[in-house]
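Technical note accompanying the year-one report. For the benefit of new consortium partners, we illustrate the data format agreed upon in the data management plan: each record pairs a sequence with a structure-token string. No post-processing was applied to the example shown here.
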Amino acid sequence: MNPPARRITGPHAEGVGATADASGAWAAVLGSPDSRAAQALETVVTGRATRIDVPHLMWAGMEYRVRIWRARDGLVHLFLLPLETEDRRLARADAAMQALVRDFPHGVCYVFDDRLRYLAAHGREVERRPDGVATVVGATLEQVWPDEVVGQLAAPYLRALSGAEADFVVRMDGRVYRHWTTGASNVDGHGPCGIAMVWDVTDRVANEASLGVIRDSIEALPMGVTVGSVGRDVRIVYANRGFTDLSGYDLGEVLGREFTFLFGDGGARDRIASAIRDDRGAQEVLLAYRADGSGFWDRVTVSPIQASADGTPRFVAVHEDVSEHRRIGEELQTRRRLGALGELAGGVAHDMRNVLAGAGLELELIIERSDLAAPVRDDLRGVLCRLRQGKATTDRLLTFARDHTIERGPLELSEFIETRIELLKAVLRESIAVRFDPPPSPAWILGNEGQIKQAIVNIATNSEHAMPDGGLLEFVLRSGLSSSALGAEVPSEMDDEPDSWAVIHIRDHGVGMTEEVARRAFEPFFTTRLEKGGTGLGLASVFGVVRDLNGVCWIESQEGVGTTVSLAFPETDARPRESAQEQEQEQVEERRYDGLRVLIAEDDPAIRRACSRYLQRRGADVEDVPDGAAGRDALRSPGARYNLLITDAVMPELSGPELIDEARRLDREIACLLVSGYTAGELPGRLDSVRFLEKPFSMDSLCRAIDEALGQPGRDPVQPNSV
């Protein structure tokens, strides 16, 4: 029974007739030797089922998958999907494999039998041989390869015949070849055979060796190197040994962690993170923390990596501990501030010396008056004594300015500190107890008593403020310490490191300092007592004094426990040539300078007038001028002949040394005396043959200087009456 005519549709409907009657299309389908198709078709057409699938149907030499279903309008649809046979699939796969092996671009594919004879050789490399495949196929392993290569290939080839795999490298003719061998059994019924795939990996090995050198070099760097990946988080994927040494973390604790895990909070951390996210380079110095909690300053330089195999953005970061550089920079900044302050202090001190000199000399002239009552004369002498004490103040200012040469000599610190303890007890509050712990042997240094006394007083004053309820102030002196035993580093500018050091530890048991305050304590103008009148110059001047004596100073402090300020000085073998007892200054007998022709060039009117009047009272013939140019004119005037030139060092138009040169050019026998508020070391040029007198000076000092100038070595004493 044939079904009524129906339309047959589907991808291969035309094969059976796109539109056919029962005697055409259905006859073609039903002509298949597989009766399942006819039964399925009859079931759907008669309405006993709406859809039936036949998985495999052989028809016209092809295998099909068949689907038959009935639509709502009664139309029957037929779909035929061709399926490949297993043989055809295998044949096509075999053809593809042969094409791959034949054109193997990286090397050669060999097939060999159990006698280690080559059955086939494919690949572009073998085709490049002079006689191609012909020299390989049919030849044995020994016939193809040199003896040293045969020894490396034989064992893995034999293992391959039993089905084992091997992956190894062979070196030949300066090249490196990678071999991969395996086995295949029952090929074409001829028993087991082996397969060898060979690649030339010379360039790859060389690249890997270069990468190894680069990797080892990065590992050996003394600074930290990390590589990070940028995703939802910024994670560390590589860290060298320098980074683990720097941070104190093990490698396993570093990999996979957030890149900024070492850094404290702050703007620098945010800027680094932003630069990484924006794929740009940046450099910041950040406070970082090691695994043990200690801090250090990490200079981080990040750079994006332009290429990544998996497309993940990456960056490389270099970490360098710059704590020491930062300390040196802060120390340099402190010195610059001290230098600026020193220039100001030096200028004030030089001006004050002129004021003190003029006032003191005029007072001496007044005191000499015979009409003064004795009480008035005594009062004026008291004022003069006070003025002379002002010289010590200007000396300290110039010392702080570090442009003043302070006389230094051997100083034994044990005796010095012991004598100052009583002074401190009188100055400090009664609630402050002072104790001294001396060393077993003397501690000699080259220093200046005034400088060290001032440093000790400044530190003691700070300690008093740190102990508002009273307490113990300890002075501990130790000698014979090596540089390594100090609590601070020796200054890098020292030419010769001392053999031993003497260290004064000044320890209080007060409120202590925070880490930040202790770090900045030596900075000029830094103070925590601004509202109580603190100037911030006490410890800054201590720093200047200690460094001026080639020493080192440092602070150790703990809040609630106390503070220790340590001053270290190089020890010396020098000893004083005279007794340590101060000698009374020799009083100068009243001198007469009858007939002595004197030219005074001084731009300070008070000093010029006082010196001129004083010498005139003692018989000298004096001419005074206000500057160096006027002095030069006086020397050049007709008939001018002077026995002595007294000149200030720094004057407008013509300096004192220049005026002396002019005077000696005109008369080499003239005696010269140079006076100045500056020290001899500060003045330019050589002053070896000129007597120098430092302001402020007394009339007695002036007379001694004149006597020395008139009788200085290399010239005959002046005979005043000869002019």
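Partners are asked to follow this layout when depositing records. The CA atoms of residues 104 and 123 lie 4 Å apart.
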